[in-house]
Amino acid sequence: MTRATNFRPRPALCLLLATLLAAPMWAAAQTAETPRANQSRDRVPAPVTATGRSVDADWILQRLTQHGATATPFVELRTSSMLKRPLQLSGEYRRPDADTLVREVRAPYAETTTIRAGEATIAREGRNPRTFSLSRVPELAALQGSFGALLAGDRKALETVYALEADGVPADWTLTLTPRDPRVAGRVTGIVLRGRDAELRCIETRPKQGDAQPTLLGSAATAAAAVDSLEAAQRLCHDVPR
Question: Are 132 and 113 in contact (CB under 8 A)?
Fold first, then answer.
């Protein structure tokens, strides 16, 4: 394995780590254990059951942390002035254990990114793996630091990194995360989580430059086989039941 001491991750990796904020979908069974008596009061309270009322950040975080799977399919489109059509990437996100996040691209090429113990390792077919420490890239380290807060539903910890803004109703909600750290905001101006009830269907990353990049998850990814444009992906990202 090659340890790239001078390796500077390309901008796409910044979007990757933002995308890995989908981690609540991978919450393992331990996240639904009965809270201890001395558990922090900053933990998210039990979700409301009304289906017609507006939701808040607590409601969304509680749903995501208590209704998760260990893996979910994804589809994302990459745009470039060098490409006539956007490049569609598909694969799977996994959380094999509490300390590891994996993004496996299966098409149109094979590439696996593993984040564990403060390091990211990128392994691509036909190339030597590259490993770098997230601590060397402050904006990426800040993104990684929010994973635990999301998995735990700890709003107070999450709000030390992002300003949160929730909108919508249970059948169509959004949670917008705006970075507080200027170094993070220099690359990503915001991350919008979109979902229905307990399902996170899309993560829309808004880079400092360029178009918003939607990553389709779960049922939205399954429905994305024919998506061939950024506009089509955005429509599917924003789609709600009629």
Answer: no
